[in-house]
């Protein structure tokens, strides 16, 4: 015979302790009275002490019963909260999610997606890390981030990459540049201009797509300077050090001395979602669902 006290014994006991009536307690528990009475007697035998004084007028708690009632309530409340937390974790409503992003992605609707996620899942600790595309790929592989929002994500073994959005390019020009007077221009118009770009090591595919866009127009850009982030790059353009091609979302950055002009060519850059293969959690799936609503295009 099993002599271990189980959670059901405490539930049975508390039902009787709170009603001081076996029939009422049995109805609350959805069981017949005789089995309930047997379970309470069994609990008393296992403890070696009476928990109730039984009289013809009803039952009342003994001193031992009063103590157990206080402790059992605390125990059951803790167990119920633990179970509730497990369920929240299982649904992705609690926990920690680390999301990486390329700087230019913050000029899209990603901030709105972050806001929506925080509102829907306020108990999730959302950690954000700005990293260039190549660093995000490495961080996914070593488990430092759970999701990556990449600018032109490079195909990588062990990483599942999905395109969320394709963007046109814009030309970024010094305000006094002769081409700044145009509303739109072709990439060919930038031939011979000094270019400012990111170093290829920061995002090989993004670099290669920009180069390919120029080569399709018959020239290879003359790169005179690289820069670590878009704000720096646009600032250098504003200073008159060169021109560049940027994702259309970068035009949201207002920088005195720099202007943005629509590019008519069919070249495109992409925002891609990266997840380590086989490591997508419920938390990550919840964030991806919201991100798709905001960025899916």
Describe this protein with a few key phrases.
Arc Repressor Mutant, subunit A; alpha/beta; five-stranded mixed sheet; 3 domains; D-Maltodextrin-Binding Protein, domain 2; 40% helix; rod-shaped; 24% strand; four-stranded mixed sheet; 297 residues
Could you please describe the fold and organization of this structure?
- There is one protein chain.
- The protein has 297 residues and is α/β, with parallel strands linked by helices.
- The protein has helices at residues 7-19, 22-29, 33-47, 63-90, 110-120, 133-141, 204-216, 230-238, 282-295, and strands at 52-55, 58-61, 95-101, 124-130, 147-151, 159-167, 169-174, 184-185, 194-197, 222-226, 244-247, 258-263, 269-276.
- The strands form 4 sheets. Strands 4-3-5-13-6 form a 5-stranded mixed beta sheet, with helices on both faces. The protein has a 4-stranded mixed beta sheet with strand order 8-12-7-11. The chain has a two-stranded antiparallel ribbon with strand order 1-2.
- The model has no long low-confidence stretch (mean pLDDT 92).
- GO terms for molecular function: DNA binding; DNA-binding transcription factor activity.
- Keywords: DNA-binding, Transcription, Transcription regulation.
Mean pLDDT: 92
Name of the top-level CATH class of the largest domain? Alpha Beta
CATH topology of the largest domain: D-Maltodextrin-Binding Protein, domain 2
Q: Count the beta strands.
A: 13
What does the radius of gyration come to? 32 Å
- Low-pLDDT parts are none
In helices, the fraction of residues equals 40-55%
Question: Could you state the order of secondary-structure elements as H and E?
Answer: HHHEEHEHEHEEEEEHEHEEEH
